Amino acid sequence: MMDLLPYLVGGLGNGALYGLLALGFVLVYRATSVVNFAIGEFLLVGAYLAYTLSLLLPLVLALLLALPLAFLFGLLVERGFVRPLLGRNVVAVVMATIGLAAALDGGVLLVWGADLKYFPTGLPELGFELGGLYVSSRAVWSVLLGLPTALFLLWLLQKSRYGVLVRAISESEVAALALGIPTRRLLALVWGLSGALATLAGVMVGVAGGLGPNLVLMGLKVFPVAILGGLDSVGGAVVAGLFLGVVEALSQRYLEPLLPGFTEAVPFLLVFLVLLVRPYGLFGERQIERV
Asked: How far apart are CA 209 and CA 78, in angstroms?
């Protein structure tokens, strides 16, 4: 059992990052019904912003400064690309986010190049050895930063005034407007929050393995996590992220030696099996439409 501990902690660390990304994705979808296919690029841009700041400042300060910048980036995306398309055909909005993703990929290559980059300094070392097995500092930091952040946002959505207003908008934007709720301001806030969450996840990944255009591939993990938890369930995104991280870790430990590459397919296979039984995800609400 002890030999599983590093895998389980690492899985929880990865799962916390998946949960953060999926949380931002689900918040946007629930508030605006927009599927943000550029979520991986949000992660990429935010991580590179933190990297640039880290050339001048310690990484912790660089991260603290990068988060509000990423929040502002999310606001600009909502104002410039998403708001003009709200209310139009869903295909138009989907194509806009796909086009935005391609544009951001090209912009990152132009500004930062395609070569792998590393943060000049890292986060304080928190790795530890237990029973002769080493638990990495990155896994510990991911758990310490990812889980409290996700739980705080869940509490904020459930208990705070702004959380109640966002949930009201997600139920009916027209009714929210009629009640005088500042929907545009709150929707922009949700997109900004999505950018900040993606940046935090991107920095944690970049600290361990460096920064490169392939970092955007982590954004692909958002879709199975969000679908598994339920596209309209904020709490489900966090639970599904942690669950998927642990399943990946166990697959890495037991199945990868026998089936190389199988771990990469695990999230999508798991989603396929769950959707056969629960089409709306583990925590999604069943929608009934009358025709």
From this structure: 30
Identity at 134, one-letter amino acid code: Y
Answer whether residue 242 is part of any domain.
no
DSSP characters over 56-88: TS-HHHHHHHHHHHHHHHHHHHIIIIIGGGTTS
Residue 270 lies in a domain: no
Distance CA 112, CA 28 (A): 28
- For residue 83, CA distances in Å to 91, 154, 155 come to 15, 25, 27
Please name every residue paired with 129 in a beta bridge, in sequence order, or none if there are none. 134
The number of domains in the chain is 1
Question: Does the residue 269 lie in any domain?
Answer: no
Domain span holding position 42: 23-217
pLDDT in tens, 5-55: 777 877 888 888 888 889 888 888 888 778 888 999 999 999 999 999 999
Q: What single DSSP character describes residue 28? A: H
Note the pTM of the prediction, 2 decimals: 0.88
